[in-house]
User: What shape does this take?
Amino acid sequence: MNNHNLVFHTLLVDSPEPEAVLRSLDVPEELVRYRGTGYFDPVAQGKLEDPQYQEFQSEVDRRDLVVYLATHPDHWPKLVEAGAEAVAELRPDYLSNYPTPRPAGDRLAPRPNPTERLFGWLAPVSWPLFPVVWLAAMVGGAVALFRRSSQRDARALGAVCFLLGATAASQVVIAVVGDGYYELVKHTVLSGYATAMLFAVAAGALVPVLGRRGGPGGEPRDESAGLPDRVRGS
Assistant: This one.
C-alpha cells in the first residue's frame, strides 16, 4: 500500500517522464496507467489481478525506493515543499472532530488554537520558510550545544532547538518517503507540533533579550530609580 502511494500517487505525478521512474525501478512502463491513483482509489480497483502490477509488488520493496530517492535528488525539492505546505495546514479536513454527519458547510470543528491561526498566516510562505527554520534550529542549536564557551542556559536552549528542528524535519522526510503525498497533512502532524514548539521556544528565548534595559554605555539601569528613599534603602 505505502509503496503504491509513493510511486503512483507521488513520484510518477511529479516526474515529467513517469516512464523513466518505472524503468529505474525495473518494472513495466505500462504501469504508468495507474499514475495519480492512491492504493484505495476505485480507478485502480483491478490492479491486484494485473500481472504487471503483481510484478511491481513482488519486485519493488522499501529499500529499492529509498535507494531510488537517494540517487534521484531532483524529486526532493517538490517532496519537501509539499511537506512544508502540509505542516502549515495542521489539521486534515476529513478528521473534523464532528459527530457523523457533520454540519453542512463546516470544514473543521471550531477549536481555538493560536498555532492554527499562526500557521494560516504563514501558509503562503511555508515553503521555504519552515525548512529554513528547521535547518537554522538544528545548526544554531548544535553550535550552542557544543561550543565550549557556551553558558549552561545557552547549551540547554541549543539542545531544545536542535531536537525540535530535527524532529520537525525528520518527520516530514519520514512522511513523504513512507507514503508520498497520500494523507500528508495527517502524517506530518508531529512535524507541526515540533514546529509550533520551536516558534514558542524562540519567542520565549527573545523575552529576556528584549526585556533587558541597559543605561548609557551598556551599564545596568538602576531599578530603584524613582522609588521613595525609604523604599530604596530598605
Summary: The two ends are 74 Å apart (CA to CA). The chain has two domains: 2-71, 78-93+114-211. The first helix runs from residue 2 to 14. Residues 133 and 165 are 7 Å apart (CA to CA).
